[in-house]
Please model this.
Amino acid sequence: MTVPFVREEPRPPPPAVIERGWQVERAFVGIEIDFERSQLHGAVEYIIRPLRRDLKEIRLHSGQCKVITCQVNNFVSVSEVLSVKPKQKSVEELIKHEKIRLEDFNMQAQQLNEEAHGPNLCITIPFEIRSDLQKQFAGKNQPPPEDVEITIRVEYSTQPHASTGAIFPARENAEQMPYMYADGRFGFAQDWLPCFD
Model:
């Protein structure tokens, strides 16, 4: 008995993905662990496909991460942090977005992480890439081209407390290696790598 090949039509992205304007195609994470200092140094690279011609920025949850560099298609990108801080003035102003420079973010990330979602890293798409994106989208009603990709690379370091742990073998068992485990659930992954959703 042979089973006929059925080709599935591509599904449209979910509404939340359409709203943010981009979809992740692939993700790569490289982490170096400093067990003595309980610190992570890493780089995360997201290859995304734009869903809108007017895409100007990418936002990632960044928790306790100290951002070192941000690149968009090998262009150094201007990056800033949008923090979500509860205000006590009125119910209407309970959550207000503040723009903070990247240098200030590194000092405030630890303090802001104790709040609900922590800060968001806002990576600006460089003008050269935005102008190419405008040209590649044929018309406003056309679906985005499949071959258009943008590579976002963020290098960072962090000392996560709530979302990771390390196991050290006893000194008698020197042949066993220490290992680290991490919690990748929603709300926890942002403590050990810049991530989305």
Remarks:
- The chain has three helices and eleven strands.
